[in-house]
Amino acid sequence: MRRRWLLWGSLLSVVVLLLGAGGWVVYQNEYDLKEERVTITGGKQPLHGVLARPTGGRTPAGLVVFVHGDGPTNATHDTFYRPIWEAIAKAGYASLSWDKPGVDGAPGNWLDQSIQDRADETVAAIDWAKRQPGIDPARIGLWGASQAGWVMPKAARQSPDVRFVIAVAPALNWLQQGRYNLLAELRKKRATPAETEAAIARSDRTLAALRAGRTFEQYRDGGGDVDGLTPQRWDFNRRNHTSDATDDLAALRVPVLLLLGGRDINVDSDDTEAGYRRILTAPGQLRVKRYPDATHNIVPESVEDSELQSTLLAIAAPRSLFSPGYLDEHRSFLTSLGQR
To answer: Peptide bond preceding 60: is omega within 30 degrees of 0, i.e. cis?
Structure first.
């Protein structure tokens, strides 16, 4: 009888622990936000979006318009954005984001877009958002990561409504970024000199074909390496590979927060910081924050390199995915804007 009670007691303890863990996960995935699905009109095609508002405090709220990086990203970036939205909400700002065209049933195809198309899309979203109730049209800015570094300066140059920019791991020049990424990945996997030389040669052949305006079929039939490459992706690269943010950045007259990772193998953080400092020279215009152990996503390298650790954090403690201080920096920067 005593053994039976011990068994039942052990089982009960396990159940209590599981229920407690489940409650913790639910708690960690609840955010102090009011999210609503919206349809953003006024551009080339309707955009399926999410408007995440602060739950209390100052009204009307300012607005941060999110501009995605590369790839088929949905409005929440598979929930990755929500901790950032919450930090932004604490500073009295709403967040607006949308599914890229063709993602999750949205009309269009993001691979058909140019960087200019993406900038036009962003300006249309701003024009739509500033007419929404509860949004302060005098406090609208942009947040964007990676490829958005070419989109946001164009959009800000087109729209006088853009009052600030938050740039996460952007690059200045598409081709330089691509070469840096190639070499960094080769170093990380400890490629041999012969493997490195072969990879550079393949990259050079690809760039020559892009510069010559060759179609996917011409490149493939000429012996080009098309492993993992689709005709649509080839056309996207051909359309955008000459992108450079220098001239558009030089036209910026608004505060900029630049967030960089010290372990970024996608973008050369040193080159980006040097370029931004060279271009954005107005007193107090540029604020730079670096996270020495962070990757391209401003996640600690040890976390990103561990599938188990990153998965557990994403489920049980999503705010802890990011490098320490990253979320607070958003709130601090946005709060400082009101003191200018």
So the answer is: yes
